Amino acid sequence: MPRCAARSPCRDAAMRIAIVTRRYWPAIGGVERVAMNLGETLAARGHEVRVIAQCVDEGRFGRMTHIIRENQRFAPFQHDGVNVVQFRPTRPRRTLLLPFALELIPLMGRLSQRRLRRHSAAYYAAVVEPVLSPLLAGVDVVHVLGGEVMAYAAVRAAARAGIPSAISPFAHPGDWGFDSGSIRAYREADAVIATTRADAAVYRGAGVDPARLRVVALPVPPIVRRAAAGDPLPVPDGAPLVVFLGARRPTKGVELLLAAAPHVWARHPETRFAFVGPGDPLGSADARILDVGRVEDDERGRWLARAQLLCLPSSSESFGMVVGEAWSESVPVVVSDIPVLRELVEDSGGGLVAARTEHALAEAISSLLADPGEARSRGARGQQFWRSQLAPEAVCDRHLEIYEELLPVNPRAASQTPPAR
After folding, report:
1. Helix (H) or strand (E) holding 300
2. pTM for the model
3. Is 291 helix (H, G, I), strand (E, B) or coil?
4. Over the stretch 317-346, which tens digit does the pLDDT of each residue have?
5. Which long-range contacts (CB under 8 A, 24 or more apart) does 344-348 make?
6. Residues of the chain where predicted confidence (pLDDT) is lower than 50
7. Residue-wise over 244-266: b if at least 16 C-beta within 10 A, else e?
8. What is the CATH number of the domain that holds 325?
9. Neighbouring-strand partners of residue 17
10. Which domain holds residue 211?
């Protein structure tokens, strides 16, 4: 396999890349999909990709993983050209992590996240480094997905081995990813990869050096669609269809879209609203509200292919991958006026942005339903944006540029002897 001489940029040479993540396929979630899509695309380009994960199952994980509870053990395996290995400290090292159990005490937990985690993250990194470092041996760059103490441990282990590191935090202000340990990982990584300019501004506000910030969209594969499979969708011919796609979490705005529906019906009474994704039942008696629930990927694709538009009225998003999925099918979107979603739609022209009120949302939906030509035009612009910015191949290219930038300029690598290969 060709190698890069003296850690200089080598766009045509294969690289050895370690992706560190809490959970990986066959477990499915937002970060898991990003890791899988990025890893598979890099491997298809001829690069050697090693995923280091705590778990590959749907079991719970959190701050107490490796301390009070432990994930199911798995043997190393390969999936679509990606080598997957487990990060799992030995029992004696888990014993050394028992002081973290104090975070289970409510007051201690809040104190730790605000003040103590900066120091406890360094302790955690020191305890697990003998386990983590061998898993990083021989790679050219380490890419960490997510935050928490594991992220800091990976950044620290990479630095001590003279390997440059990049981190994609996927943090949600007010929810996760902004404890002091996570912030320390962001500040010490050689590059912090934000999903949008709005996302980058959040990390800049947390003290990340602007020179280390990069902006790369998330990889959004074309949605799986087998239009001929299965029973016909329960939508009358000619009836407009508005689709909500995703889990029904409180931040996603499901109740807001339900409240907007009667205002849309006042102008477009045949419109159907389909809620596709897991969550509590909607409880609506109106037949025009379709409570689809959890479905397989090909079924999601069928609903999206039939839609006139996708609506995502979230109050908080780190990116909004379903918007990109809609654009891969030339479906325009209506999104709420929050920074990340506004940036995507304004950059692409692929839909409309509405204030987070039922009337504003209904007006935006109704305007696209009333003007099919405008809706098609915005859907086409969204698809062009998806091809150039969101398709896995385009995102892979941008990540490779960042990895290559890090190789010759990493000050730690310049001052330390590279690890033996």
Report:
1. helix 297-306
2. 0.82
3. strand
4. 878 889 999 999 999 999 999 999 999 999
5. 344/196, 344/319, 344/320, 347/385, 347/389, 348/381, 348/382, 348/384, 348/385, 348/386, 348/389
6. 1-11, 108, 409-421
7. bbbebeeebbbebbbbbbebbbe
8. 3.40.50.2000
9. 49, 141
10. 5-219+392-415
